[in-house]
């Protein structure tokens, strides 16, 4: 038997291609196969079309050891997975008595007359193995064809997950008795560009085979995915930790978290560790910065509040930015950002005050170019500091990037301060 099993997932349904629903099935199946040490090299999404589905299945049959097909097992005319599967795998379709009884009972209990097309849900491959569907009608199926394994599952996530968890996983572990497991860890970095980061670790990326290192660009940040294969998860994690240590020696200054950890979470944790509260004064960002922080549970311990001073009169009357300052320097200025940070810190009686002002476009404002952003920061008794950024992109992109820059600067500022 082969040392490695290479799998492929085919998701069937025109609704997936139209974007009406997201294909979460392939992601979920891939995660579970990885835990068993089964490689997934291809994901395919194909609509409800006989010829296109046949073409995709033929391709999968040539290159993969295990093919998992989800969707297209319903009762309607455009549910073609069984028919195409029977063609590709040289199988006959037959009615499964127990499944048919279940389908008929479903309609009887509801006092509804069953239409003839619903019998289709009881069709199975004559030489296949049938797995019961406890959450719906169409069962799961397995066919061994030319030493290739084919699994067919309903597309409804609840039904697919039930069959896969209760029947497919035990079946695969018995059929492919490999001890290897595939484990991944995502490392997250902020304040360094993707090209610079990759250049610093390029030799490690080129030479690593197990674990592998894959750079992934994020929104205003960079991530590295480390993936290892070993007999146990503990061994895989140990290999990953060894590579992570090498990476940290080169780019550790920019590291902030891993896997599902977010920059917002890290900022909140650091505020708590310093026993700081934070308040924001937001013009350009319109409250988006503080919203990202308070969306995290426990934010009330450290978030004092926010003032969204979008119009000039609000900056003057609520934040008390001097009229003379605005007339001389404008609202999109270093001076205005500094005053906003200081005023919101004072008014909210918080340890940290942060401010955002700038021009997100689409046109120049106060003679300032689109994308010019100022962020002010005041921590404790320290002098307030303002940073200017020239950002690019759409209005929405500039606003998103501004929030990210604020979180990044706050993260590094707090990181440099001694904890209480």
From TrEMBL:
Q: Name the residues that span the membrane.
A: none
Provide the MoaB/Mog domain boundaries. 8-175
Q: Which SUPFAM superfamilies match?
A: CinA-like, Molybdenum cofactor biosynthesis proteins
Superkingdom field: Bacteria
Q: Which CDD domains match?
A: cinA
**InterPro entries to which the protein is assigned, alphabetical:** CinA, CinA-like_C, CinA_C, CinA_KH, Competence-induced_CinA, MoaB/Mog-like_dom_sf, MoaB/Mog_dom
Q: Which family does it belong to?
A: Belongs to the CinA family.
Specify the protein name. Answer: Putative competence-damage inducible protein
Organism whose genome encodes this protein: Salinibacillus aidingensis
């Amino acid at each position: 038997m082969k040392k490695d099993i290479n799998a492929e997932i085919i998701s069937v349904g025109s609704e997936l291609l139209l974007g009406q629903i997201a294909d979460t099935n392939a992601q979920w199946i891939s995660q579970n196969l990885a835990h068993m040490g089964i490689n997934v090299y291809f994901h395919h999404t194909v609509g409800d079309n006989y010829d296109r589905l046949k073409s995709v299945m033929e391709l999968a049959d040539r290159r993969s050891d295990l093919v998992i097909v989800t969707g297209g097992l319903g009762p309607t005319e455009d549910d073609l997975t069984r028919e195409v599967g029977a063609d590709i795998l040289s199988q006959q379709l037959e009615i499964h008595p127990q499944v048919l009884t279940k389908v008929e009972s479903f309609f009887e209990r509801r006092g509804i007359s069953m239409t003839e097309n619903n019998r289709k849900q009881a069709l199975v491959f004559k030489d296949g193995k049938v797995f019961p569907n406890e959450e719906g009608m169409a069962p799961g199926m397995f066919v061994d064809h030319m030493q290739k394994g084919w699994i067919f599952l309903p597309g409804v996530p609840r039904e697919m997950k039930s069959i896969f968890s209760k029947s497919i996983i035990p079946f695969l572990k018995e059929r492919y008795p490999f001890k290897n497991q595939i484990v991944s860890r995502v490392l997250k970095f902020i304040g360094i560009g993707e090209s610079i980061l990759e250049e610093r670790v390029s030799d490690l990326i080129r030479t690593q085979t197990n674990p592998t290192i894959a750079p992934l660009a994020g929104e205003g940040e960079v991530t590295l995915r480390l993936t290892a294969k070993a007999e146990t998860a503990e061994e895989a994690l140990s290999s990953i930790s060894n590579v992570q240590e090498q990476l940290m020696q080169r780019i550790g200054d920019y590291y902030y978290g891993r896997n599902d950890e977010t920059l917002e979470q890290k900022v909140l944790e650091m505020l708590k560790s310093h026993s700081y509260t934070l308040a924001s004064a937001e013009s350009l960002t319109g409250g988006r910065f503080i919203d990202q922080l308070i969306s995290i549970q426990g934010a009330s311990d450290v978030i004092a509040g926010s003032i969204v001073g979008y119009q000039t009169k609000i900056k003057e009357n609520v934040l008390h930015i001097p009229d003379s300052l605005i007339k001389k320097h404008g609202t999109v200025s270093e001076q205005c950002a500094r005053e906003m940070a200081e005023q919101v810190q004072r008014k909210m009686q918080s340890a940290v005050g942060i401010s955002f002002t700038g021009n997100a476009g689409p046109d120049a404002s106060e003679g300032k170019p689109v994308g010019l952003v100022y962020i002010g920061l005041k921590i404790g008794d320290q002098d307030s500091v303002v940073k200017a950024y020239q950002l690019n992109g759409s209005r929405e992109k500039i606003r998103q990037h501004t929030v990210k820059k604020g979180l990044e600067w706050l993260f590094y500022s707090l990181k440099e301060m001694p904890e209480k």
